[in-house]
Amino acid sequence: MKVFFTFDSRPDLQKQLVEQFPEVEFVFRKGIIDDELETAEVLVTYGEDLTEEHISSAANLKWIFVASAGVEKMPKNAIAERDILVSNVRGIHKKPMTESILAHILSIKRVLPTIYNNQRNKIWDKRGGHPTELNGSTALIIGPGAIGGEIGRLLQAFEVYTIGCNRSGNSVEYMNETYRIDDLAEHLPKADIVISVLPSTEETQHLIGYEHFQGMRDNAIFMNFGRGNLVETSVLIRALEENLIQHAVLDVFEEEPLPMDSRLWELENVTISPHCSSHSSRYLERSLEIFIPSLKKYLEGDKDIENKMNILRGY
């Protein structure tokens, strides 16, 4: 059986796979190689390099392991028609993303940008920036799954009150309260910090509108670390220009890279993070921690693997 990686992982990780699964032929390449794809039974990819033509030509393909959480750029219908098994690495982003989100929150609360700017300009100003405390705040987390739950866990360590909004409204660990996402507007006024880690689906596209920003506190921090199409860019810019909220921290955008002429670059009440919050030196090894047990199951004929997805739903 052939397992084809469309990215060239670290040599030590490749060696680990080869030694652990001597019965498997592993191929490591940068990008799609048609000859390799045509004979591969398992494909390991970040998901952005696959087309319908690739799926059509991959006659032996039975399982796609996506080394990413998002699958919105994959040829979903072609994959579903072939009934190809799809799984991803949902959950491995929770540590680096939570650290990124917490770092941004603390940076704003403790006015670190002002401190750094004063240092560059040799300004000694003990009163500059008006710092506030994270302790005692309320955070509303839209999408309290693996990532959102980890965010909630660490925020609660800072004595932050956490509110979750998900599809069901069922209770979730590390959320003090949980409500249905359909009732989001009702609970936004409670929050000092609004954090979205939602995936991109038909239901989440432009889920947050201008009226939602009107419902937020004028000193709220809005953070989008899920997908950029949660909010229409023009709506987001309008809300920031009108100072409906204090600050936005954006790791994702409707158009990426963010165009140079975007108004978002010029606004003082926004922090632009170039879709890098999940980056970590440990990313690939965490991916293999999910892939290896799944490969063992697959070789035994067990298709009930971790993070098995409905490709048409996107999760």
Automatic annotation (TrEMBL):
<dbReference type="Pfam" id="PF02826">
    <property type="entry name" value="2-Hacid_dh_C"/>
</dbReference>
<dbReference type="InterPro" id="IPR029753">
    <property type="entry name" value="D-isomer_DH_CS"/>
</dbReference>
<keyword id="KW-0520">NAD</keyword>
<protein>
    <submittedName>
        <fullName>NAD(P)-dependent oxidoreductase</fullName>
    </submittedName>
</protein>
<keyword id="KW-0560">Oxidoreductase</keyword>
<feature type="domain" description="D-isomer specific 2-hydroxyacid dehydrogenase NAD-binding">
    <location>
        <begin position="102"/>
        <end position="277"/>
    </location>
</feature>
<dbReference type="InterPro" id="IPR006140">
    <property type="entry name" value="D-isomer_DH_NAD-bd"/>
</dbReference>
<comment type="similarity">
    <text>Belongs to the D-isomer specific 2-hydroxyacid dehydrogenase family.</text>
</comment>
<dbReference type="InterPro" id="IPR036291">
    <property type="entry name" value="NAD(P)-bd_dom_sf"/>
</dbReference>
<feature type="domain" description="D-isomer specific 2-hydroxyacid dehydrogenase catalytic">
    <location>
        <begin position="20"/>
        <end position="302"/>
    </location>
</feature>
<dbReference type="InterPro" id="IPR006139">
    <property type="entry name" value="D-isomer_2_OHA_DH_cat_dom"/>
</dbReference>
<dbReference type="Pfam" id="PF00389">
    <property type="entry name" value="2-Hacid_dh"/>
</dbReference>
